[in-house]
Protein 1
Amino acid sequence: MPDDAQNIDPTKPSAEGAPRDHAAAVTPPPRLPRPVPIRRPQPPHTIAGLATSASIAVIATSSSVAKFDLAELGDADLAADVTALAQGYNLDVGMPLVSVLVSAATALGSLVRIEIGGAWIEAPVLWGMMVAPPGSRKTAMAALPKSLLGTIAEDEKTEWIQRREAAAREKRKLEIEWSIYDADCRRAVRKDFPYPEPPARRPDAVVVPIRPGIVIEDSTIEEITERLAGSPRGILAVSDEASTMLARGRNTRALMLQATSAGSLRVGRISRESRELTSFSVSVLTGTQPDRVAGFIGGEDDGLAARFLWVWVSETPSPRIARVPLKLDRLLEVIARLRAMGKGEELVVIPMSEEGIDRLERAMGVWRAEGRKRGGLVQSWYEKAPGHASRLALVLEVLVQARAGEKLPTVISVARIEAAISLIDRLFAPAMAMVAMHIGQDRGERIRSNLIQHLGNNHVERFRARDLRRTHTRLFGTPGQFEDALRALEADGVLSRADRQPGAQGRSPGDYLVNRAKLPAAIVS
């Protein structure tokens, strides 16, 4: 007997007023439609009707907060290299792109700079920050520069060994000459001979070269300053967890805030003499998890967040193993050429074209307005966006030039400025907005935001709540927190129940329909 029939009282009249018959057949409730399974992530997509000015509220790819079209770089070879890395590591293009750009900036070095107008110069010092959940290959992307710059580092280490051995031989030679001179002086005293001429140099005048190191993982002040003394063109500090390098309260953090200007610096040391650095130039590539961003930045804006080019990855991609070996030969060759192009004794300043200055000036007006509208960390970041764009344009221009030879460009073109502005607007600024929003949200707001992003990124039209939460536990928290987010979106009209029909009995399976027309408003709110 159907469950519904057990609750029928045969003594009560039917709807037509006639007494019920015990033998009467009970009509079963209508069969409910089977739930439609959750759709798998689809290729990049932007929700229709979503505002694109400044690209702040854009939901785009299945794995990151915003999709940058690599064609906007204006460099087909660079786009191909980044695409190969993204496919090989199963990543969105944002992480390998920022890793390659930071590596290229480090290879070029701080002796090549860009001049914007008459009184503004920037060095190619880039800080990249990848915010992504566990399993997103942050470690692999943070380690990528060691592969790209490894050959250069080995060559410079070999050169350093040769120069050190030559200095040691010269020092030993001078020590012998001075020993002979001292003996001659003593003999002159005993026999009343004329005093001999001393050697031209003393042994301590020989400069023993300091060991270079382009990429470092030890972020102590001592290690940073020692490697900079050996590599005055600049170094790259890498770490797969930002808090180990730049946690609030560490002395390294206060020192590193000065590293993007590539100015001179005197670093005092207790155990040894102070170190004079002609160019304190340190690029950074690191990452962290979304839940650690607030603790890393801290409660006060000390300018650290504004110095980073942020890449925000919301979800890990579907598992996939690359079948084709990843080839980096072309990228390695370009990085080596960049190193050769930036090698020299004198500072080289490359001017930005007049068209580029005009274009950057217009972008600066837009960024200033957007920053004032948003305030807080986002405003601080937008204030530094012109510097970010200038340094990016320099790196992009020299990358293009490096494929043709080892001669530096004579001007930074407006095409590279356009590419840099696109990077700011479509990749780094939206990620910075996510950082600020994440810091300002409590746990419930973040779960709601994660749910909205997941629904938009993956083109979900219908889903079963229980299955979705179990598949993405890190995004959606506890069952109670997830239920609160569902109810909030249901109240906003973004979700509606798909499993309730008149007369249905029993436990609800928890199916929902998504009103995609209302998703953009939910994102902005």
Protein 2
Amino acid sequence: MFAVMVSAASLLLGCSSIEPDAPLGEATATTQDHLYVLSTNVWPSNSIPVCWETSGSFATERAWVQDAVTTTWQANSAVTFTGWGACVPGSTGIRVGVSDVGPHAKALGSALSGVANGVVMNFTFQNWSTSCQSTREYCIRTIAVHEFGHALGFAHEQNRPDTPSWCDQEQGTDGDTLLGAWDLDSVMNYCNPDWSGSGQLSEGDVAGVRSVYSAPAGRVDYWESWGDSSLLGGWLDDADRQLVGDFRGLGRDQVMFINRQPGGGKVMIVDYQGAAPGQVTYWESWGDSSLLGGWLDDADRQLVGDFRGLGRDQVMFINRQPGGGKVMIVDYQGAAPGQVTYWESWGDSGLLGGWLDDADRQLVGDFRGLGRDQVMFVNRQPGGGKVMIVDYQGAAPGQVAYWESWGDSSLLGGWLDDADRQLVGDFRGLGRDQVMFVNRQPGGGKVMIVDYRGAAPGQVAYWESWGDSSLLSGWLDADDWQLTGDFQALGRDQAMFVNRQPGGGKVMVVDYQGAVPGQVLDWERWGSSGLLDGWIDNGDLSLIGDFRGLGHSQAMFVNRQPGGGKIMIVDYDD
């Protein structure tokens, strides 16, 4: 079962970055065998409850502990620590107490379940390790990582039988299974010259926790809890908008938050490459400018792309109410307000007449291989034009680069119903975008990828019928999510399917470059990890972009219900 090694257990160190001035507490039992994960105490489920014996105080310190554990053990494995609220009579899982004594775990792994004060943290350092008073956050975070290593069932690294003779600090409960080679850099090793690794898992630690609890389907690359910052207060209401693009020309994506309720901020662009909270790179308040007046009504549309060929993204605002401006493209690289780079009024042209009805679709991508984005307008009402691609690099009105009428072809028959989905990406690795049509009604075609570079009708580059494969069964329900990005760093886009109904698969990444059916590159089932628990509820948001500047797409999950995590960026590149 266990193939690699990391030892973990209770940290018996004080809080100095060089060496402790007092030992941390131990897991109490001892054995005669010198081995390092206690396999009999591995938790039977990867979802492990945590509660606080004292929850009415030390809110900041408790948040440090949760964040430290979440961004280390949880981020690097399929383990999810859940709850983090107040313990009640009968609470199972890890019960964490707070006392001014040496931090310790009373047992290893699942033997802690339901044990009152099973893990004890020190938040004040008035009596124990007083040197930590000047570096409390560092000490608390570092100790938390060590103690939760014990809580996962890991013993001290220096207790291993293959420990060098010069490292003679054996303490606490031993394990019964070695995982790989002895690791000086482990957070569980007292002989680590960097005290407990400063709370950062070593490569051996990561390999070890994954060998016991499996690797995560995704790796948490950014985490922000409710309470960490008030930055997004008032920006996540039901009517607000969140857009993704490289608006500032940074070579990575940012998130544009649009507050549609007058008062306070109106447009905010946040860069999430660094530590939480994100860095505000653009701010525009209500009252600073009337630029967006009449462009943010309920029926209006906002599209993101490099429409002007500037090497960065702009926002296209479409006012669907006749009168005034109809299409406006705004560049947000500079200071507020944004710079209008394209303007078309209602009356300037009849080009979009019949293409902006409620049921119509507008898609963005480089469909024509021009090196910049165009807009594909899909008229779902039979009669007149059916598909139109418009290039907006030049003067108004936009230039029609592709036109297909409702009688020209039956290609899209049955693919444009209300429940059907359309995704945009370079699924086939052609160096330009295609459209993936997903027919959710059983019968006929199920997945079709169409290339629109040539003349009408578009060229079918992939076709999968209902009956060819059961791959997407259970992934196309009404409330499921289908997302597009280069999650696996392949240089082309894949489709991510998120099944929001518990049971079966939860997250699946599929590559559609080859033959039918698509190739599954990543799969996470319900129950294997609690990573997305609480992040895919009704009202929550999922955004796709290269937020961290990794050269491939990540998924940003936004939990709009106060409590727990608020923003989590997950990297799905194996």
Protein 3
Amino acid sequence: MSPYTPPSAYASTSSSSPPLGNPSSLGSTLGRLLSRKRRKYLGIVLFVGALLAVWDVNLRREAGEWDEGGVATGAGGGLGGKLWGDIDLGKLRSGVFGSGRVVVEDEEDAVVPGGGGLSVDHDHHNPTSHSHPVQSINGRHPVKNGLLYVDLSLPAAKHPIYQLIDDAKKEWDAKVAKQSKTLGEAVKEYGKRNKGRKPPKGFDKWWEYVKTHKVTLPDEFDLIMRDLNPFLAYSPSSLRAHVRKMTGWKDTFTVSIRGGKAEAKQILTLASHLFLRSKNYNPEKIGGSNDRVAGQLAHIEAVAKWIPDMDAVFNIHDTPLSFVSAAHKAELAELVEEGEFFDPEEEADRSFSTWGAACPISSPLHTLHPTLGTDPSSLLPNLTALNVPFTPSKLFTDPSTKSFISSLVQNMDLCNHPDIIPLHGTTSGTKPEPQAELMPIFSLSKTGLHSDITVVPMEQWGEKQSGDVKPFKEKGEKKLLWRGRNTGAFYSNSTPWRSFHRSRLAALAMDNIKESIAVLPAPLSQSEDEQKGSLEKATVMTEEGKLNQRLFDIGLAYEPTQCSTEDGTCEEIIKELPARKSLTFEEENEFQYILDVDGNSWSARYKRLLSTGSLILKSTIFPEWWNDRMQPWLHYVPVKVDYGDLYDIMTFFRGDGVHPGEEHLAQMIADSGNAWSLSSWRKDDMTAYMFRLYLEWARLLALDRRSMDFEYKGEP
């Protein structure tokens, strides 16, 4: 097991580590604004701004909102007031943000709270989402930003999971039906999705591979373009120079293709006994690192002959490296639109230092960072509030807070879901500083706030489950299973470890919790007349410990790891979260329901779990290569990071202990997930992704990018 490496920016500015640089000043920001052809518009903007300011003052004077000394008497006046005046610094320091109501775009008349705002529930000392009064339309629960918000006024027969499963089937069928069937159609679809750009050279060979190996959904590779588009703002020469510099960085390796042959390159140094050893990383300290390198080469051994010469620098660790501000990403996007290149001598905008710095200014998460940027001590109240033993919060006791994930991809957009930040070990209790430049680094995992280039990991992958797969109905254990170590971050008195995703999961599943929580009714528990009543009336309060005994077999396994022995945190973990018996794969496969959650990064066990024939519930914040190629509620069941939906999900499928649940739907999803893993998570499918990624990357590195376009000359 490799040592835990936090997904944070490097502090060193030496040539052997990623550069951090110094935060940009107002002067450097203005310098960027005054450069390039944008400066010709600046005079007009300033002139119009001055006129608007005068007009605003006159209006305020007429309305009595401006005193004779020229001071606005109303709160939040003018442009500056709009951006800053509405922010309650006291609330920000206590961890409350993102409240308010917004119109649901999917359902025009539905109303839900904005952004899934976070609050610290000081009664229970647990972070909770604000309650969300909702209004349905056409008898449907409203959906916003990847979440379905439960409308408790709907009839009890309209359990939200029915809607989620029905919508998932329709969405999947529509996606499958519209996939390209010929090379000409694929070229046309590529142009539609990429602003008219042509595919990269070698696209025809990639298409031939896809069709020969029966790779499904050949149009669904948008994640590649989302990762690579910012690098269009770099000239080929500056991007090449950046890659050359990075090949010497610590804890990296380089996949190099020359003349159709792929190899892993590392800088070697003379070690003891005249042996050569990698200078980039030490495989003895980073367990499995050599296998990680070999796995990436295995992806492309059969297709390297069709990939142009290129170098790709990989992060050897399983945590992300690249974190730049949204302002810088917006600047790069603007340069791409203008057909200009970023000056590598300039420094990226780094005005703020929080997770919100990676988000657009209009997003809920971004609104947190003005306070944190000026007052780092504002993190302390959250640290105190979050790092206390678990008790049920409003997420579990207040039925008006209930929601479910409808789109995992949208839910992993942390800019729109700031409530996730303090609930996951990767983001909780940290205050990252944006880096001075965008790094072309290929990584095994990242969050939506990072800018690493996503690749396909090979860890724990197998074509299919070893041994016989027991059918869902024949599995003897009907509880939800999870076992794992206390990974996810470093556990100490200086970190809010009790709020981390794995420790919270183990804590909420304890059998001795006496408080009662609100649970939606089992779908088959009401008479015909009762089903006409509201979901709110049908919701029942049940003692959490008893629910845990009936529904869950969840707990940490083994001795604590990644924790401080010096301050006693390891001992606290042992006392508060005693380890449960570890299970063999054979014992694990006896469970009908298995939960998969993140560790230090993505979960390497997910593929194997899908192949068990069990229903897999998944909670994650890490986008992966398969996200656009799988369908939640059809191949697996998504679970929120706060776990506020877990009891309702299990009650829906398992029943309430007296009345049955929809076990046949659980079996259908389990079977679909297993079938998908066998048909669409093969070595061929992973190769298709990496093949396409490398074709795009090789074009970005080409000195003449247009010469690396694929020219289609066949029938449309």
